[in-house]
Amino acid sequence: AGNAETRKVILVLGMHRSGTSAVTRCLNLLGAEVGNKLLPPAEDNRSGFWEHADVVAIHEELLKELGRAWHDARALPEGWLLSVAARKARGKLARLISDEFDAGALWAVKDPRLCRFVPLWREVLLESGLDAVALLVVRHPAEVARSLNVRDGLRCETTCLNWLEHFVEAETATRGMPRSLLAYDDLLSDWRGAFAKVGRALRVEWPVSIEHAHLAIAAFLDQTKRHHVFS
Questions:
Q1: Cα–Cα separations (whole angstroms), residue 176 to 14, 131, 133, 183
Q2: Using one digit for the tens of pLDDT, what is the confidence trace for 73-111?
Q3: Phi, psi of 22 (to 5 degrees)
Q4: What is the DSSP letter of 42?
Q5: Number of H helices, E strands in the chain
Q6: What is the dihedral of CA 81, 84, 89, 91, to 10 degrees?
Q7: What spatial distance separates the first Cα and last Cα of the chain, rounded to whole Å?
């Protein structure tokens, strides 16, 4: 793969509890960089979140300054992208990208909060000379709602609204850029076919081929436990 091919950042976009952690680990096994400062695994996600801790911190701070929380189902404030808080976050992200992201490599960034901040990321990546591509990860909202109800006691109605908000904002904000949709079901039933399709849609050549990553991904997904199944 030439340099033009590899100067890409995959934005992994999906609601909390939608399988974005598993997807990002698979992208990592296919050769995408995720950085060294990852959030540690937790009781509810033993195989790891695969989230860059600094990215999460910047998103959390921005949400707070906009008067929102991660499980907030309200729209972001009108004109948030032009706010002082967004300008501050943009500066921090630009610094993070220039410090951490090796321009020659393929990167993947994942945080469910990212669904709401795609316009900000598109601006920062464009200015950093990196191509943004998007991978939208979707899981049945009833499964997500059940999972968050069990973990955080969140009401299913709120979560379903939140799910819709995350998806709609991510879908709208990624129009016009290379993007692909990956259903959580397809990840578990046919990950090879799923990532071959994603690679074609995003015009990404995996640094580690699907054949070479095969055993590691199969072993990883094997231990990715699935609870709360709805048809």
A1: 18, 12, 10, 21
A2: 888 999 999 999 999 999 999 999 999 988 789 999 999
A3: -60, -45
A4: B
A5: 10, 4
A6: 110
A7: 39
